[in-house]
């Protein structure tokens, strides 16, 4: 849609070129959300594509995903064979309530910064133990695990004007075995629950990441695959009923039911 409150679009070569941050400024990534509804509080868009950050940088240590990496680029990435859990990229890219038209423009960083419960790039990068690199204004860069970056429905750890620069996925997480479960009320609908479990092939560590059903990611970590009762008790503790999302895509009761159901399936699958 046309945003008739926007009076200026800036395309700086680097973030430092934006000397002062004013209310009414917004970073522009793919624009798929920004241009999907009126932005009455915004008058200036600052296009971050002009920073020309390399989208995907793979190394023996892991994968650095620029915030500006398009969802379609992540979908098409060819990982080294030992990064078994990179198969989750395609599954999560296909977990949007959106068609290829959105994927072609939407960025990984834009999805994480939106911090919606059904943000599939949040599910992916939280499950793969991603670390967000944040660039505050006029301060040193800082790092926050994706699982802690999202603090609620459309709420996160960013201060005004702070940039999400990249997300780093460690090779140790990419080499893990994984199990994926997702439910939508309608075919190709918005995720009602999206759970990912991972298990370290060497040490046996089990990590369960719950997203979409809860207001923010919930991550449980065990030294080995826990007993069913232990996992259920840990979920009870980490995700009280108030943490389950209530919207047209699912009731809290149904989301909680799916969460326990899928968590147990994942536990059994990764026990094998
Ligand atoms: C039809 C349709 C279906 C959709 N389905 C889903 C869905 O299933 N799940 C979902 O989560 N979303 C969905 N969305 C919302 C949105 O398209 C996605 O969240 C998308 O990934 C946002 O990325 P973007 O690059 O387009 O962000 P933009 O629209 O450019 O920006 C989104 C917000 O993030 C800020 N921002 C972007 N990048 C940065 C950065 N690097 N640092 C700091 N701030 C930044 C912007 O200022 C803005 O506030 C949908 C949208 C549409 C139109």
Write the layout of secondary structure elements.
Elements: E1 8-10, E2 25-28, E3 44-47, E4 56-59, E5 62-66, H1 71-76, H2 87-93, H3 100-103, H4 108-114, H5 120-127, E6 131-135, E7 142-145, H6 146-149, E8 150-152, E9 155-156, E10 163-170, H7 171-174, E11 177-184, E12 191-199, E13 206-211, E14 218-222, H8 228-238, H9 252-271
Parallel strand pairs: 1-3, 2-3
Antiparallel strand pairs: 4-5, 5-10, 6-7, 6-10, 8-9, 11-12, 12-13, 13-14
Helix pairs in contact: 2-5, 8-9
The structure holds flavin-adenine dinucleotide.
Flavin-adenine dinucleotide (FAD) binds next to strand 2, helix 4 and strand 10.
Instruction: Walk across the major sheet and give the strand order.
Output: 4-5-10-6-7
Q: What number is the mean pLDDT?
A: 96
| Anisotropy-based shape | globular
The termini sit apart by 50 Å
Rg (CA only): 19 Å
Give the total of beta strands: 14
CATH class of the largest domain: Alpha Beta
Pick out the low-confidence regions.
none
Q: Fraction of residues in helices?
A: 25-40%
Question: Can you put this structure into words, describing what you see?
Answer:
With 272 residues, this protein is an alpha+beta fold. It has three domains: 8-50; 51-172, Uridine Diphospho-n-acetylenolpyruvylglucosamine Reductase, domain 3; 174-271, CO dehydrogenase flavoprotein, C-terminal domain (Enolase-like, domain 1), CATH 3.30.390. 26% of the residues lie in helices and 26% in strands. It contains nine helices and 14 strands. The protein has helices at residues 71-76, 87-93, 100-103, 108-114, 120-127, 146-149, 171-174, 228-238, 252-271, and strands at 8-10, 25-28, 44-47, 56-59, 62-66, 131-135, 142-145, 150-152, 155-156, 163-170, 177-184, 191-199, 206-211, 218-222. A five-stranded antiparallel β-sheet has the order 4-5-10-6-7. Strand 11 and strand 12 (191-199) form a beta hairpin. The longest helix has 20 residues, at 252-271. The protein starts with 7 loop residues before the first strand and ends with a helix. The model has no long low-confidence stretch (mean pLDDT 96). Flavin-adenine dinucleotide (FAD) is lined by residues 26-34, 36, 48, 67, 96-98, 102, 105-107, 109-111, 113-114, 116, 118-119, 158, 163-164, 190.
């Amino acid at each position: 849609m046309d945003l008739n409150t926007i009076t200026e679009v800036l395309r700086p070569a680097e973030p430092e070129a934006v000397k002062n941050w004013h209310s009414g400024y917004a970073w522009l990534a793919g624009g798929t959300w920004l241009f999907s509804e009126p932005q009455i509080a915004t008058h200036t868009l600052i296009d971050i594509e002009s920073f020309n950050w390399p989208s995907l940088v793979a190394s023996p240590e892991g994968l650095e995903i620029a915030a500006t990496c398009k969802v379609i680029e992540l979908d098409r990435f060819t990982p080294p064979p030992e990064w078994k859990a990179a198969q989750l990229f395609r599954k999560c890219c296909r977990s949007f309530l959106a068609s290829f038209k959105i994927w072609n423009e939407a960025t990984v960083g834009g999805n994480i910064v939106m911090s919606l419960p059904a943000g599939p790039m949040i599910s992916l990068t939280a499950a793969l133990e991603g670390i967000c690199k944040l660039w505050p204004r006029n301060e040193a860069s800082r790092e926050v695990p994706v699982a802690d970056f999202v603090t609620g429905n459309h709420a996160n750890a960013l201060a005004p004007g702070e940039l999400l620069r990249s997300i780093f996925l460690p090779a140790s997480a990419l080499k893990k075995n994984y199990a994926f479960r997702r439910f939508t009320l309608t075919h190709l609908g918005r995720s009602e629950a999206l759970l990912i479990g991972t298990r370290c092939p060497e040490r046996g560590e089990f990590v369960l990441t719950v997203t979409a059903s809860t207001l923010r990611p919930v991550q449980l970590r065990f030294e080995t695959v826990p007993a069913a009762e232990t996992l259920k008790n840990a979920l009870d503790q980490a995700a009280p009923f108030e943490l389950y999302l209530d919207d047209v895509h699912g009731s809290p009761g149904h989301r909680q039911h799916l969460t326990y159901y899928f968590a147990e399936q994942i536990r059994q699958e990764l026990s094998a």
